Amino acid sequence: MVRSTIIVRASDSLPLAASVDDEQTEQALQEHKQQSKLICRRITINSEPRCSIESGPYTLHYLISDNVIFLTIADKSYPRKLAFSYLDELSKEFATSYGPKVEQVRKPYAFVGFDTFMSKTARLYQDQRTAAAASSSLDRLNDDLQDVTRIMTKNMEELLWRGDSLDKMSHLSTSLRSESEKYRKAARKINFDAMLRQYAPLGGVALIIIIVLYWKFW
User: What sign does the dihedral 172-63-79-20 (CA atoms) show?
Assistant: First the structure.
């Protein structure tokens, strides 16, 4: 089930809104909420727009939309498709209600009133069967959400303690292609140089013979 949610401005990690959790939830999720704040601070313009980060018995799912991060802490057994459907609904309503104001606010939790919609939507998504039916009837799941294999998954230990990043894997792929192209060019140059070393002496001899024959028979 969905446990807690926070909404943060991506450019400077300013918290915009958060779910109002009871004392028991606060205590149970204290460490994971700290992890959530750290994740939001590590997000850059090159970060994955959708990502799931496993941490103990929970998974932290986030979605980035229009410079806003929507992050929820859910049980590890909770389906990723439903978690991102929930975040998708939040992002659409938040954009409608506060979109133009996001860049203007300076104080934290300026949109605390959004908790009403978050609470209502979270209750809907507590029951997986009800949530699935609602998502289906409202047709809120697009192709990206349906294909959950496209959503990047990371491990919290790798992210926090091994210096892993949230940058897009496509950047790594681009870098690898660039390096590969560089090595191919270097290989072609090496092969060309080797061919010159192999045939240059023969070419020199042939050139000398041609010059001698030219002067002899001209």
Answer: positive
Residue 31: what pLDDT? Answer: 87
Burial class of residue 1 in the structure, from the number of CB atoms within 10 Å of its CB (0-12 exposed, 13-18 middle, 19+ buried): middle
The three-state secondary structure class of 48 is coil
**7: β partners:** 17, 70
Tokens of 48: 């994955």
Query: CA of 36: how far to CAs of 33, 42, 130, 215, in Å?
Result: 5, 10, 27, 85
Q: What is the pLDDT of residues 18-36, one digit of tens each?
A: 998 888 888 888 888 888 8
CA 193 – CA 213 distance, rounded (Å): 29
Q: Which pTM does this prediction carry?
A: 0.66
